[in-house]
UniProtKB/TrEMBL annotation:
Residues 352-365 have a biased composition (Basic and acidic residues). Residues 346-365 are annotated as: Disordered. It comes from Kribbella qitaiheensis. This is DNA sulfur modification protein DndB.
């Protein structure tokens, strides 16, 4: 080994017949030790995806805003040098796996997984150097060349699946809107019974009518711009609003009481779908922002029950909420669906919905 070396306490393991090492590294060393090749090389000459710089500030801010509760998973890196592992106690089975990993300073550490975390850490350290004394786990493999590194990247990401939006809302205790959405569901016997909290999609035989992700998006639209309200006030507003909305749809009550199946209602009506919930949330935002008395906006919402929400009502919904009979939630469809609901409630249209509605009607003609 050379005269200048890094020495890490490490645990030695074996995967696919090859040794690898797990260690801890202070955050302040991450930007200096672990490199990410950001040169404009063709994809076939790289072992990583290009860095998405728009993600870096988000990761940095997450670290800075949650210094006592953040969680970063391990980085995975390759080392292109000969290393030496010295067990602390080679006389025992467990002892020979724990020791000191010596790596020459001439070695190149290349990140295989975690380049965005590395960039976020580097960015956060510039604002708060005190974070440098904290540590992150590193999984180190011995570099066997570009082909092997590319295969490692493919294997590490082969089965990586992002959690559903509904599950993220269910488990996210930092985001205020996630907490509000959970409480709205929890406080309503109907919504707690009929809301799917893990998946973004409902199976044909599911007895649920809504997804937590759809209610989250609708509640976000409802509370947009109400930043002066306290958390509890926002929960109360959202809970009361959606309770009144639920009263306008007898099919929801029938599913809750077990009189009809959720699958039948989802098949025949559109009012349980995310686009309608989102649109009703936008409408509610206008009603509540207008500071109208609850008795007034409640009377307005009663007109929802007079709309024909059947999917078969193509004269009203085709091209707005549905395309070819299938519910569609593009930005344009959301504007057109909201415009139809506002019109039925006798409400004026904001400019974006007005323009979308006029263009839609010209297209019909």
């Amino acid at each position: 080994m050379g005269a200048f070396e890094y020495v890490f306490p490490a645990i030695r393991g074996v995967q696919a017949g090859r040794e690898y090492y797990v260690t801890m590294c202070p955050l302040r060393l991450i930007p200096r030790l672990f490199m990410f090749d950001e040169e404009e090389l063709p994809a076939e000459m790289r072992a990583q995806r290009t860095l998405n710089r728009s993600r870096v500030p988000e990761l940095s801010r997450y670290l800075l805003d949650n210094p006592t509760s953040y969680v970063f998973s391990a980085l995975t890196a390759s080392i292109d040098a000969d290393v030496e592992f010295a067990p602390f106690d080679p006389s025992t089975g467990a002892g020979e796996r724990v020791g000191a990993l010596t790596i020459p300073m001439s070695a190149k550490f290349v990140i295989n997984d975690g380049q965005h975390r590395r960039a976020g850490i580097a960015d956060a350290l510039r604002e708060n150097p005190e974070l440098g004394d904290e540590s992150i786990a590193i999984v180190m493999f011995l570099d066997l060349g570009l082909k092997r590194c590319q295969q490692m990247f493919a294997d590490l990401n082969r089965y990586a699946i992002r959690p559903s939006r509904s599950l993220s809302v269910l488990y996210d205790h930092r985001d205020e809107l996630s907490a509000i959405a959970r409480l709205v569901v929890h406080r309503s016997p109907l919504f707690s019974d009929l809301t799917e909290t893990e998946s973004n999609n409902l199976a044909a035989r599911s007895r649920k009518l809504f997804t937590l992700s759809a209610l989250y998006g609708a509640t976000k639209a409802l509370l947009d711009g109400m930043d002066k309200l306290s958390f509890e006030q926002k929960v109360d507003v959202a809970h009361n609003y959606w309770a009144v909305v639920a009263e306008q749809f007898p099919e929801w009550q029938q599913v809750h009481m077990g009189e009809v199946s959720a699958g039948e209602v989802r098949r025949d009506f559109i009012h349980t779908h995310g686009i309608v919930l989102h649109a009703v949330g936008r409408v509610g935002n206008s009603l509540l922002q207008g500071k109208q008395d609850p008795a007034i906006w409640s009377r307005k919402l009663k007109k929802l029950s007079g709309l024909d929400w059947r999917r078969a009502n193509t004269e009203l919904w085709e091209g707005r909420a549905t395309l070819g009979g299938k519910v569609s939630k593009t930005a344009a469809n959301l504007l057109l669906t909201t415009a139809a609901i506002r019109t039925s409630l006798g409400m004026p249209l904001p400019s974006d919905e007005q323009h979308a509605d006029e263009a839609f009607r010209r297209g019909e003609k």
